[in-house]
Amino acid sequence: MRPTGRLHIGHLMGALRNWVKLQQEYECFHFIADWHMLTTDYASTSELEENRFQMMLDWLACGLDPDRSTLFVQSAIKEHAELHLLLSMITPMGWLERVPSYKEMRENLTDKDLSTYGFLGYPVLQSADIVMYRADFVPVGEDQVPHVELTREIVRRFNFIYGSEGQAPVFPEPQALLTPTPRLPGTDGRKMSKSFGNDIKLSDDPATIKKKILTMVTDPARKRRSDPGNPDICPVFDLHKAFSTPETQAWAADGCRTAGIGCIECKEGLLKHLLPVLEPISIKRLEFEMKPKEVRQILDRGNEAARAVAQGTMKEVRKAMKL
């Protein structure tokens, strides 16, 4: 994850819950992608160190376990930069220019300077991040599958150019491990994002969460309490689908369509399910926040473990490339 600010419930439902489950079954590597942050925010580094710390607090509070997963900072492992450089030498420009997110982000992020070598080449850095740890699987949503496929193409090209007959390839071809990634709406109905100021942060206290939920936009057709609405276009109901029980979802949907309940009642019903999910995360987060030295020691241990793996990989890469 890119350390651009404190994480919100979209990160929880879209990635973190799944990561916590995966660490029960797989050997997992999770890193704070601070070099990737520079591809779009290279001029905004003043809060980078604090954001790295806050992200680690969110991870630990959500249940990522440093005894089960390797948690580290990308920039602490210099081998990522070396492998990125080497892979960039064999990656055709056309492969990068056809990555869907390249054109999409250039069209949508008009307030940022994306006409840089680093932004064009960030998928190669992603590939280096993946193959550095000989990853078999990469947990992604459908929108990230093209990035994994690009990595597979780069791996095939590397193994073809530098492979030796009778020897195992240097890199395995990683598979996309598709995971459900619901896009949660923010309080204004747009996609939840820190940059929009419409997010519900994992670090928000119950009073702040309640205030944000109670002021959320709803179906614009419900101007009065007696007006029926459509839950299928209501951002609050999208959160119901993510956090509430099926019984509460049915109650909210029926009450909306028939005007049997008002929007405030609907939101209060959501809070009964949302707050119990976030409260233990908030408590655990505060506990770790009071022990910053311990958190940094966890990162140091993770960096050391990741570095050992990366050094072993780069030894094999240099040998294969006759460097």
How would you describe what is shown here?
This protein has 323 residues and is mostly helical. The protein has 14 helices and four strands. It folds into two domains: 205 residues, 3-Layer(aba) Sandwich (Rossmann fold); 83 residues, Tyrosyl-Transfer RNA Synthetase, CATH 1.10.240.10. Helix content is 56%, strand content 6%.
Which secondary structure elements does this structure contain, and how are they paired or packed?
Elements lengths: L8 H14 L5 E5 L1 H8 L6 H15 L6 E5 L5 H10 L4 H5 L2 H9 L8 H4 L1 H10 L5 E4 L4 H18 L12 E4 L27 H9 L20 H9 L2 H13 L4 H27 L2 H29 L3
Parallel strand pairs: 1-2, 3-4
Helix pairs in contact: 3-13, 4-8, 4-14, 8-9, 10-13, 11-13, 12-13
Task: For the structure shown, list the relevant keywords.
323 residues; mainly alpha; Rossmann fold; Tyrosyl-Transfer RNA Synthetase; two-stranded parallel ribbon; two-stranded parallel sheet; 14 helices; 4 strands; 56% helix; elongated
